[in-house]
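Lab notes, practical 5.
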Amino acid sequence: MMRKLGLINCEGNIVELYVNSRSVLTMRALLNNSAGYLEFTPLLADIKAFLNNQCSLYELIKSAKQLFILAGRKSRIAVQTIEKKHIYLSDRSLNDNGQDVVEENVSLIKQLLGIKK
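Output from the prediction step:
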């Protein structure tokens, strides 16, 4: 079973983090024009950097080994790369999103990953 935690939300999740039963962390980022989501599994160190505002969403995505475009319920297409212009809020670090950051979920994830405030 997967647990979904929204990190950035503005009338729906823009960036989400999923934790499965084996504690594997997978993320999804909204594509521009609500064309679906980009699913990726970044390195733990890069997730920590994003949560500490040390990198942008796009830098986090670039660190992932696998990328998938999710367009619809059953469509999952592997891609090698994706251009920054196709990802909503790609140039922003987490705190650049102000009131749209779901602080409760970010705090929970930081606690689970042992990140100091």
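Observations recorded by the TA: The chain is about 20% helix and 25% strand. The CA atoms of residues 33 and 75 lie 17 Å apart.
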